[in-house]
Amino acid sequence: MFVSVLTAKATTKGALKSPIDYTLIWTSKGANITQLEDAYIWLPIPPHGYKAVGHIVTTSPVKPSLDKVWCIRSDFTDLTEVDSWIWGYDTSNSSNIVNLYTTKPKSSARSVPAGTFLAQTGSSTHELACLKMVKRNPSSAMPSNLQIRRLMQAYAPWVYFHPDEEYFPSSTPWFFKNGAVLHQTGRLPAHVKGNGTNLPNNVAPEDAYLDLPENEDDKERVKKGFLHTAFAYVHVKPALGGTYTDIAIWLYYPFNGGGKLQLGPLVIPLGIIGEHVSDWEHITLRVDNYRGLLKNIYLSQHAKGVWARPREFEFMNSTRPVVYASLHGHTHYSTPTYHVHMSGKLEESQIQMLYDEFQKMNNSNKYNIVKGEKFFGFGPRDDTEKSDNVMDIASRYDLVYTDYKNSGEEPWLNYSGRWGPKITYSFAKVVFKIVESLPDKLKELATKALNALPPELLGEEGPQGPKMRENWTQDERV
Predict the structure, then answer these.
(1) How many CB atoms lie within 10 A of CB 233?
(2) Region Disordered: what ranges (predicted)?
(3) What CA–CA distance (Å, rounded) separates 467 from 221?
(4) Each residue's pLDDT tens digit, 335-373
(5) pLDDT tens-place string over residues 98-137
(6) CA distance 88 to 100
(7) Strand partners, 99
């Protein structure tokens, strides 16, 4: 495992000062853990106007020397937040609880992680700082175009689609060429030209949207996308003060299919709920600029997503992660299975009722029943599985934007309207049809579950494009 710890040299007078004291945060002395020596974790107490950026760990109960660490002048620091859990010790004795976390800057684009850890106990409320990027453009450590290509060759994912997938990605020119229609307030509908040259870039999201072709046969054909010529669209930007590079890999789908709901052991198809024109999903590779190593992978999932460690993935050719796109919804996961986003918990009586009903329906083909597992909640369900339909991103991408250098832009990238129309179906009517198909005892619970679905799953309006989203310039949403 590689660990980076930032060291600092003062180039401005008074930028660094020694702490004035230490506070003992936690000791392993007396803890029921295997250890060669007792450990002591200390928090430096900074002078007024300065911040501590890390802890000191010793094997002695004697406070460390004050010249062992520097504190940083406050105007050179930024706030941090907890990132990943490293290790913890917990007993019934609340005074001896400790959890160790990595930290990351809250303002990720302009701040540099120190590589230190945060120790929190049951009673601690302290924070650590990181360094603020003083230079306005942290581009000196960012990769060149040649290096970006090599990073893509090394780390670009393979994306597998479910065997039952109907709606595949396409390139944006394929979508335009095959009859995409621009609707704009105060103007007649018009076909999109070329590579989006007639798409407006200065309208409010509500004043323009794209739609499928009007002809029904063409509409059904375009919904399915065209995997054979699909491209990923790559946006490269600095992260964590330019110490990392984020390679955001965007996939475009002309259509998003209906979803599923997990209700205890039952899997309920949601019909048209979740359907909408156009779907933009992405995967972000975070690469360490010091060593060129893949640090984390972000997987978009229902308007937000998760950061995952490389060890959570299987790999092709040793370095390229395998990513699974969920059936119809196209959310990304690291494993080929089903995934339930819990929207609520069930009471014990509800659980028992579900399993009573489960026994009655066990031999029925009307419902999809998950056998051999017990679910204590409900929520949207995503299915992933490997199939012959796979996209090799390393050979199918277009570098569309680089934050830290001049780069050509595709015309469609600056389109500020929506990529699909607002859905006009009645949610209440759809819910009623789904609920009425269930046994009587499940209707009330199913209604509660459906009403708890997140708004983004309902697909009430088409999405905006990648450049119009918050995470284009900020860190990924989790």
Answers:
(1) 23
(2) 456-478
(3) 27
(4) 999 888 776 666 667 666 666 666 665 555 555 555 545
(5) 999 998 888 655 688 788 899 998 777 888 999 887 665 5
(6) 6
(7) 88, 120
Q: How many other CB atoms are there within 10 angstroms of residue 378's CB atom?
A: 28
Query: What global pTM score does this model have?
Result: 0.80
**In this structure, are 196 and 60 located in the same domain?**
no
DSSP assignment string, 189-226: -EEPPTTTTT--SSS-GGGEEEE--SSHHHHHHHHT--
Q: Are residues 95 and 207 in the same domain?
A: no
> What angle, rounded to 10 degrees, do the helices at 440-451 and 427-436 form?
150
Same domain, 58 and 89: yes
Q: Angle CA(298)–CA(301)–CA(305) in degrees, nearest 5?
A: 40
Q: Do 107 and 219 share a domain, yes or no?
A: no
Q: In the 8-state DSSP scheme, what is residue 133? A: P
Pairing status of strand 344-345 against strand 368-369: unpaired
Could you give the number of structural domains in the chain?
2
Give the separation between CA 345 and CA 351, rounded to whole angstroms: 10
Q: How far is CA 239 from the centre of its chain?
A: 15
Residue reference for tokens 């992405």? 282
Query: Is 47 within the bounds of a domain?
Result: yes
Please check whether residues 127 and 49 belong to one and the same domain.
yes
Closest CA to 411 of 180, 198, 203, 206: 198
The full DSSP string for 333-366 is: ESSSSEEE---EE--HHHHHHHHHHHHHHTT-SS
Cα(385)–Cα(396) distance, integer angstroms: 21
Residue 256: beta bridge partners?
276
Phi and psi at residue 353, in whole multiples of 5°? -60, -40
